[in-house]
Amino acid sequence: MTDLVQNYLDRILAEHEPITEGVLADYIPELAAVDPTGFGLALSSSDGYVYRCGDADTEFTIQSVSKPFTYALALQKIGAPAVDARIGVEPTGEAFNEISVDDETKAPKNPMINAGAITAISLIPAATPDARFALIRDFFSACAGRPLEVDEAVYESERTAGSRNRAIAYMLDSFGVLDGDPDEVLDVYYRQCALKVTSTDLARMGATLARTGLNPMTGRRVIDPAVVRRTLSVMLTCGMYDAAGDWVSAVGMPAKSGVGGGIVAVLPGQLGIGVYSPRLGPKGNSVRGVRVCRSLSAQLGLHFLNVTRESRSTLRSVSDVGDGVRVYEVHGDLLFAGAEQVTRTAQRQHEEYTAAVFDVSRVDDINDAARTLLAGLAATLQTVGKHGFLVDPDGIVVPLDSPHRAAAYETVADAVAAAHTWLSTRPAAAVDD
Ligand code: GLU
């Protein structure tokens, strides 16, 4: 059976495929050698299911997408007051590699610019640079749910070409902001930036933040909820270089991009998204990555200020009422993530029933993306010889004045009776084996 959400995401990716604007980052020579056409998208639901599209399993270097995670690790290890004493949380509106600090405190303005990220590394308590890097790598791997490795060529390339970052590190050292030897801290920074990830990894790392620090795939708590809240806050205000304001308005998800072409975006409580496309726009963000995220947000209603009144499990109950009829009772506010859960469950279980009744009479609110998914579910079930019946007395999915209103039932009893009638009269050819 075709999967509705997978189809939808594949289509979004295909729509953006022809965009070739932007250029590869070349100030780190190895980055100019990657395949410019790579294009991957992965979306993890809050229960850890990952949809993968295009080159979702192609590895690339994490670069600045590492910054929020190292900041989270520093907060986790030494607490917010100690981190705040060295790194601010104010957006700068400056480029990522600007040699910039707060005029008065001399501390980097936020952890998403290089000055703040290099400082964050220096705050992670460890006896040696190797031990410090091991803590970072283990932490990133726990968020991704698999062990991550360094791209040695990219690491060497940046190490030998990094005079800008050396300038930043030595400036921070001169202000007494950096804990440790600047060259040692930088070496860890370059290794961290050269960690290899896929869009799928970024979606899982994003989902770990979406789940307030619990990796939904491994079930392991990796980050404290208060640390996640702080991390998402700076991602929201400072995550997209000097295009952060435009991003928040148009996409509305805490995010971080990197010059390797990756973007991680998080819809708190609901989704983690990873995108990869290495051609960058003038502000250093992946051109196709940003466009895909804009489309996803607009079409699926993912802006974080589209607030659901309650976020509870969408499926209230699933029950079999005899003769192959299964009733799914849906409740609460139904946005994309909730509808995804309902359609995925019904699709996954389709061999366990012949007719499915979807009761949305307890759904309080719904958006267009969820309505489209639920409306499409009946059609997709038909392709495998099953039939869906909708209980929708208030016109939540099929409006009361719609010409298709006859397809909706007032009560579960009515829909179950219709299902039985359909079962007894359907043509023999449609009978499943
Ligand atoms: N390693 C890169 C640098 O420090 C990361 C830059 C980025 O992704 O923004 O220049």
UniProtKB/TrEMBL annotation:
Catalysed transformations (reactions): L-glutamine + H2O = L-glutamate + NH4(+)
Transmembrane regions listed in the UniProt entry: none
GO MF annotation terms: glutaminase activity
PROSITE patterns cross-referenced by the UniProt entry: STAS (PS50801)
Gene3D superfamilies in the cross-refs: DD-peptidase/beta-lactamase superfamily, STAS domain
One GO process term, biological-process aspect: L-glutamine catabolic process
Domain annotation STAS: ranges: 315-385
Claim: Nucleus is one of the keywords in the record: no
EC annotation from Swiss-Prot or TrEMBL: 3.5.1.2
SUPFAM superfamilies in the cross-refs: beta-lactamase/transpeptidase-like, SpoIIaa-like
Pfam families to which the protein is assigned, alphabetical: Glutaminase
Subunit structure: Homotetramer.
Similarity-based family: Belongs to the glutaminase family.
Family annotation (HAMAP family): Glutaminase
PANTHER family, A to Z: GLUTAMINASE
Name the record gives this protein: Glutaminase
Species in which this protein is naturally found: Mycolicibacillus trivialis
